[in-house]
Every structure is written in C-alpha cells, then in structure tokens.
Specification:
Largest sheet: 9 strands, mixed
Helix content: 25-40%
Radius of gyration: 20 Å
Oligomer: single chain
Number of strands: 15
Order of helices and strands: EHEHHEEHEHEHEHEEEEEHEEEH
Length: 340
C-alpha cells in the first residue's frame, strides 16, 4: 500500500493528511499516512491566530485559485457548523465589517458571494466609523462568515486523523533530500510553511510577523477589520477577543513588542472605546509563512513523489481544505503504488 509522509502539523499539514487518508478509506484502498513535525498543537504558528475566514497576505497568488480554495474551506466550515462537532472544533458564525481608506479601490470583495449577506455600507453607516478620524474610510462591506479557532480546530482535526488510523512522529527534518532518499515513504507532502525557506532553500519565502493581544470582552459579538496598511482589527473568539495586529514583512522577532502592543490596543479602542475597561489576558507573536505566490505543485524525485503545499501567508485556515483538495488530486494523478 502507498506510504505517505506529511511534513508539518499546522492546519495545512493536517488537512492534507486527512484528505488523503479519508479518500482512500472511502474507496476501500489501504494506505499509510504519517504526519511528521517538530511541533504539534498547541505549539504551531496557527494556534495563536483568531481563525477568521478571509483571504489575507497571499502575494501574487492568482485570484481564481484563492477563490476556489477559500470557497472549499467555507463549505467545510459550514458542514461542521451544521453538525454536532461545531463546539469542539471552535466553529462559529460571526458578523463582520471590513473597512477601507483607499481612494482608488473599494474593500476587496472578490469572495463576496462565498460569505453570507454581503452588503456595501451606506454613507451613513460609514460616517459612524469615521467619527473622530482624520483619514476617513471610503468604503465598507458587512457580511457573515465563520471563525474556526485553531486552538480548537487543530486538536479536532488531529483527533479525526488519528481515529481513522493516521500516525504521527515528532521529528525535525533538517535535510529534505536525505529524508526523501533514505526513508521508506513513497510520497512526501511538504507543508512545512516558513520552514521551506531552509528545507528547500526557497528564497521566495519570507516571514510576516504578526502580533496580537487577547482580552476578556464577552460582550463583543462581531468583527471589525480595517484594511489599511496600518489598520487594526477586532475578532471575537469563544473565550476571548483578539485585537490586532501587525503584518511586518521580513521581521523574525518572536518577542512581544510594547510599541506594537500600544498600537494595537489604542487603535482598537478607537473602534470600541469600551475596550479600555477590559481585562488583558495575554499577548502573542507568530511568524506567518509569506511567499511571492503560494506553492502547490508536485515533482518527481526518482521513484518518489514530492508535493509542495506552502506559502499560505495569513490565510492558512482560510485555504487549508481547498489546498488539501488539490494535494489529493496531485497524488491521484501520479498513480503511486508502493513497492513494499
């Protein structure tokens, strides 16, 4: 039977592993799928994020692909939300408002028919958000979508993977070429995120530093996102509210920066002054895997197949299920049969 290794236990690694494993189980075809990673939840980059659906920081990745991948994830989240697993998986419906200060473009909305009830804000509605602002918002979009908190979604997906016979190995892969050559795996799926910069010497990879603050504010039930380069966002989760954020390209600092914290907190308080009275829980920093364009393709390494699935920027959760669709398609098109 085919012997598959998935490198990386972030949301894209787990989604790819589940897609491959469950497809073969459904078809009655034996297969072995192992996730190999140095870190597992709750210690992955995604664990600290708010998990709001929405394409973000994807460089030059073609819009048509982003649309397809993100639509697949939205449907996946809808299916979970309609099931008894929603609470365990951290999937919630959330009203959102996106705002833009651009004088050239309106809020980016190529995905507006994926979400629910998308409507452009009226001039009167924009005026509410513009009170006291020197740089005015010029457009806005209200809609409803999902949050899928990675700190809950990742354990849920891992439980689903293991329940179906998946295996995990805690190991750091230092030399990808040696691993491919020496291991007994027929197919290696590379979902190593920012680690691909070193594993593949991929110079297109770069870190995008994100810092957020979490506060106790159970009275906030909707998200607000400013799309400006120096904009803030407020995203409620089930047990806290995420205040953000930064997207500092090429910054590898994983320590909390007090200057960034002040920018985040003060900026979010301009949207909701009541945040001044909230309890601060903790601050968090993660490095998103930025790339000029998301890489999702396959290549032959001798008799073995290497599938790349990395460079998801700030859209790991948003794209994971759709990208996993393509990973499975690449695997099936290769028609791999094990010699073991």
């Amino acid at each position: 039977m085919p012997n598959i290794a998935v490198i990386g236990a972030g949301v894209n690694g787990i989604a790819s592993a589940i897609k491959i494993l469950e497809h073969h189980l459904t078809e009655g075809q034996p297969i072995s799928v192992t996730i190999i990673s140095e870190d597992f939840t709750p210690n992955t980059t995604g664990d600290g994020s708010a998990g709001l659906w929405g394409p973000y920081l994807l460089g030059g990745t073609p819009q048509s692909k982003v649309y397809k991948w993100s639509q697949s994830m939205h449907q996946f989240l809808e299916n979970i939300w309609l099931s008894e697993d929603a609470g365990e998986a951290g999937v919630c419906l959330l009203p959102c408002v996106r705002l833009s200060t651009s004088t050239v473009d309106s809020v980016e909305d190529f995905w507006r028919n994926i979400v629910y009830g998308a409507m452009d804000l009226t001039a009167d509605q924009l005026a509410v958000y513009n009170v006291g602002r020197s740089v005015k918002f010029t457009s806005g979009l209200s809609f409803i979508t999902y949050t899928s908190e990675p700190v809950k979604l990742l354990p849920y997906l891992m439980k689903r993977f293991l329940r179906n016979g998946g295996k995990i190995v805690r190991r750091k892969i230092e030399d990808l070429d040696a691993f491919i050559a020496d291991s007994g795996y027929d197919v290696i799926v590379n979902c190593s995120g920012l680690g691909s910069r070193k594993l593949l010497k991929d110079e297109q990879m770069y870190s995008v530093r994100g810092q957020v603050s979490r506060v106790k504010a159970n009275w906030i039930f909707s998200a607000v996102l400013d799309e400006s380069d120096d904009g803030n966002y407020i995203i409620p989760n089930t047990e806290s509210v995420v205040l953000g954020g930064t997207h500092q390209e090429g910054d590898n600092n994983t320590q909390v920066c007090e200057r960034d914290r002040q920018f985040i907190v003060s900026g979010c308080r301009r949207f909701i002054p009541g945040l001044e009275q909230t309890e601060s829980l903790f601050d968090w920093v993660g490095l998103r895997p930025g790339r000029g364009e998301l890489r999702l393709e396959a290549e032959r390494r001798g008799q073995k197949l290497l599938i790349h699935n990395y460079g998801h920027g700030g859209s790991g959760v948003t794209l994971c299920w759709g990208c996993a669709d393509d990973v499975l398609d690449l695997l099936l098109a290769a028609n791999i049969t094990s010699k073991l």
